[in-house]
């Protein structure tokens, strides 16, 4: 009645699973681990370069903006001229008349 109970034997076995595909992948990717660190270093240097380039003097920014606006107005003018010439041409008028028939 008051006897000591026998405990089950316990083992410290931790099961491991062998995945040959993963082992092969790890073996093939291990040479590139060093390159990954180099890539991270390269990314950080590029990021810092972008931050340095974003600090452009205001006079240079305004000049760039003015050149961009001039270019935009020139493109709009050329497109308007081309569309005007197309609309006034006889070929376009003949096409529009053929659609109305």
Descriptive notes:
- It is a single chain.
- The chain has 101 residues and is an all-alpha fold.
- It folds into two domains: 18-54; 56-101.
- Helix content is 72%, strand content 0%.
- It contains four helices and no strands.
- The radius of gyration is 37 Å and the shape is elongated.
- The chain starts with 19 loop residues before the first helix and ends with a helix.
The beta-strand count equals: 0
Overall pLDDT score: 80
Listing every helix as H and every strand as E from the N terminus to the C terminus, the arrangement reads HHHH
| Unreliable parts | none
Q: How many distinct helices?
A: 4
Tally of distinct domains: 2
Tell me the major beta sheet: none
Query: How would you describe the shape?
Result: elongated
How widely separated are the two ends?
112 Å
Strand content: under 5%
Helix content: over 70%
Based on CA atoms alone, the radius of gyration comes out at: 37 Å
Structural class by helix and strand composition = mainly alpha
Summary?
The chain has 101 residues and is mostly helical.
Keywords:
single chain; 101 residues; mainly alpha
List the helices and strands and how they pair.
Elements: H1 20-29, H2 33-53, H3 58-88, H4 90-100
